[in-house]
Write a structure and sequence with these properties.
By secondary structure, this protein is α/β, with parallel strands linked by helices. It contains eleven helices and eight strands.
C-alpha cells in the first residue's frame, strides 16, 4: 500500500477511509485494540472481576475478538473463557472446531466445546427441510446453547463477534420488516434478564474489513471458507448495500450507528420486551429440541 503511517512514518499497512487515516501494521493493531477497549468502556460491557464467555467459531471476527480481549484482559480486569459449538455440519464442523481449539490453546483460554448432536440429540444438518431457513434455525439454536453454556460456566457476560456491518445489517433487516421488538433489543450491550446472561458486542464499532486486517496483521489462524448454508443469506445483500453507501460516503456506517443508538432507539417502546424477550430468544431452540426428542 502506497503512503506512510500518520503516527510513525513507516510504510502504511491499512488505509481507513472512514477516518482519512493510514497506519503501519503495528499502529493499526494498537488502533484496533484501543477501539475495542473504548467500546467496552463506552457501553459499560464488563465490570472488573467479571468472567467473560467469548463465543468462538474460528471465523475472523470471533478470533479477532478473543485475541483483542486477551490482550486487554489486564486493563479490563476480566477472566476469559471460550465456547465453541460443534454444529454437526458435514465438511465444515470437522474443520472449524479443531481450529477454534487451537486458537484458544495458544492463548491459554479454557474452551468449552459443545457437541450439538451428542448433547442435544440433533445436528444442524438435520434441520434441512423444516419450514424455516437453516440459517435462521441455526441462529436460534446457537443463541440458546451459548446462553445456557455461559450460565453453566458462571460467566457474567457473553461476548460475541458481531461487528459494525453485522449490527447495521440486522438494523436494516428489522427496519424493513417493521420488527420493533428486534429494534428495541438491538443494542451493543444487553443487561442480564431472567435466565439470560448479559450479552455484549465489543466489535460493534469495528468495520468487518478491519477485523480481517487485524487477524492478517497478527498472522492469526482463522476460518477462510464459508459455511455451506450461508449462500443466499440476506445479510450479505444488506452488507453489499452498506458497502456501496460507504464507498460514496466514507463514515456513513458510523453515522448510522450513532443516529440509531442516540436518537432512534431511545424512542422505541420497550414495554413489551421484558415479558417477550426471553421467549423470543429461547423458544425456537426449545421447540427444536422437543421435536428431535420425540
Amino acid at each position: 500500500m502506497a503512503g506512510r503511517c500518520r503516527v510513525c512514518g513507516a510504510p502504511a499497512y491499512a488505509r481507513l477511509e472512514y477516518a482519512n487515516l493510514q497506519l503501519c501494521r503495528d499502529d493499526f493493531v494498537r488502533f484496533f485494540e484501543r477501539r475495542v477497549e473504548r467500546t467496552v468502556e463506552r457501553y459499560g460491557m464488563f465490570e472488573r472481576g467479571s468472567r467473560v464467555a467469548v463465543a468462538v467459531s474460528g471465523g475472523k471476527d470471533s478470533v479477532a475478538l478473543l485475541h483483542s480481549l486477551w490482550k486487554l484482559r489486564g486493563k479490563l480486569g476480566v477472566e476469559l473463557v471460550a465456547i465453541t459449538i460443534d454444529l454437526g455440519i458435514a465438511g465444515h464442523s470437522d474443520r472449524y472446531v479443531p481450529l477454534a481449539r487451537r486458537v484458544c490453546e495458544r492463548l491459554g483460554v479454557p474452551c468449552r466445546v459443545v457437541d450439538l448432536r451428542g448433547e442435544y440429540g440433533f445436528s444442524v444438518d438435520e434441520l434441512r427441510g423444516l419450514r424455516r431457513p437453516v440459517c435462521s434455525l441455526c441462529g436460534a439454536v446457537k443463541r440458546y446453547v451459548l446462553n445456557r453454556e455461559a450460565r453453566e460456566l458462571g460467566a457474567h457476560v457473553l461476548a460475541t463477534g458481531h461487528n459494525l456491518d453485522d449490527f447495521l445489517a440486522a438494523l436494516l433487516q428489522a427496519y424493513i420488516r417493521g420488527d420493533l421488538r428486534a429494534l428495541a433489543k438491538l443494542r451493543p450491550y444487553l443487561p442480564p434478564e431472567g435466565k439470560l446472561v448479559a450479552r455484549a458486542k465489543p466489535l460493534v464499532e469495528t468495520p468487518e474489513r478491519d477485523t480481517k486486517l487485524y487477524v492478517e496483521a497478527l498472522g492469526l489462524e482463522h476460518v477462510t471458507w464459508k459455511c455451506p448454508y450461508s449462500s443466499g443469506a440476506s445479510s450479505f445483500e444488506y452488507k453489499r448495500v452498506l458497502d456501496l453507501l460507504e464507498l460514496e460516503h466514507p463514515s456513513v456506517k458510523f453515522q448510522m450507528l450513532r443516529s440509531f443508538l442516540e436518537r432512534i432507539q431511545p424512542l422505541i417502546s420497550v414495554r413489551s420486551r421484558a415479558s417477550s424477550h426471553a421467549l423470543s430468544v429461547a423458544s425456537p431452540a426449545r421447540a427444536l429440541f422437543a421435536s428431535f426428542a420425540e
